Amino acid sequence: MGRTQVDSTWRNWAGTATARPRRTSTPASVADVVAAVQRARAERSTTRMVGTGHSFTDIAVTDGELLLPHGLTGVVDVDHDALTVTALAGTPLRELNSTLERFGLSLHNMGDIAEQTLAGATATGTHGSGGLFAGLAPQVVGIELVTGTGEVLRATPDENPDVLALGRVGLGALGVVTALTFAVEPLFLLEAVEQPMTWDEAIGSLDALLDENHHVDLHWFPHTDRLLTKRNNRLDAPLADARPLGRVRGFVDDELLANGAFGALVAASNRRPAVVPRMNQLTSRVLSARTFSDVAHRVLTSPRRVRFREMEYAVPREVGVQVLTEVRRVIDASGWNLSFPVEIRSARADDVALSTGYGRDSLYLAFHVPAAVDHTAYFAGVEPILRAHDGRPHWGKLHTRTAADLAPAYPRFEEFLALRDRLDPERVFANDYLRRVLGS
Fold first, then answer.
1. What sections of 359-402 are H helices per DSSP?
2. Residue 255 DSSP code
3. Helix/strand/coil for 136
4. What is the bridge-based pairing of β-strands 84-88 and 176-183?
5. CA distances in angstroms from 137 to 128, 230, 382, listed in the order given
6. At what angle do helices 320-333 and 376-388 cross, to 10 degrees?
7. Chain segment 285-343, per-residue pLDDT in tens
8. pTM for the complete prediction?
9. Which long-range contacts does 417-420 make (Cβ < 8 Å, 24+ apart)?
């Protein structure tokens, strides 16, 4: 039986969303989740399952019963013949990765943060860059969820296939996901090549970079002409041939510089924003190249200890350079002091109904500010450019879109709404965010 408490407060990682639910519980079984849904129905209230709070929106907020994920963790099945793995919904990605490594298996691709729960990451469309699949959701081949009527429903290609097709990015609107099954593959090595480039070098050859490498991640430092490029490619080599970063180099680069020193610089820029352009110039000039190889998840993910706020959009790849150029023009002409780089990634088209990559190859553009800084002017300044080029906002990151203008961006939007009506007719899982992006 899960733990329950009242009069608690929950906040997300960035401090941009707060919930004050009437009850908070930690379900330890599917039966506990069913009981929470039935309580909400009886009380004519709502319930939401949160993850680790890495979404920047208020997607997880409820004033009803807030379900914490910590009691539903762990890998419950590994099928080497089918190349699938099933894990409980609250399992952090880092735990899944380490378990898969022990079994000689790996996800095809993932984002760069491994702290999120599997259900939270898939529900909001968390993605990586390039690869066989750009996001987590396209790798999902099975879902178990508790619907708004309290039914435990399983969705696979053979059982409730419509729920699988429409619900892999479900926003928590269709039910409380309790377990997920992913397609996996044998563990493989990635070689990472990281090097600074000028804007003209990187953006001028962007199509070639994306076409000639398995994974590409670019970071442009505003107020400069320089980017850090990251290219990760699969190695046809035994795992014993890995050449990971040494312990000292890894600590210096990823902890001391990427987190410690960068955090100190961000804190300083918060106090004196006028120093940001000069700080970015200096930071971008001291970037150095490095090459290493390791198992995939150790290359694709990295620690993120400096807190921030973020907006991210997927735009059609064919207009990506044009959008980037327009965004830079606006940033260069503004009075904003932007200490965080703009991140540029890519995605192949997928078939997940509410995925930002549905039906088209995409370029992802992500914009950040420190968690203590007001993002409003910056994000409002670039969002119209992204919208004008048929951009789709990341569901878990800050944006201003509503159901009226999101519906035309997703060909299967009405199908998703119809499934929501079927699985949650009483809107047990509703909150202000879902009313904004899906309607009531």
1. 376-388
2. I
3. coil
4. antiparallel
5. 11, 23, 27
6. 150
7. 667 789 999 999 999 998 877 899 999 999 999 999 999 999 999 999 999 999 999 99
8. 0.92
9. 419/162, 419/163, 419/166, 419/167, 419/174, 420/173, 420/174
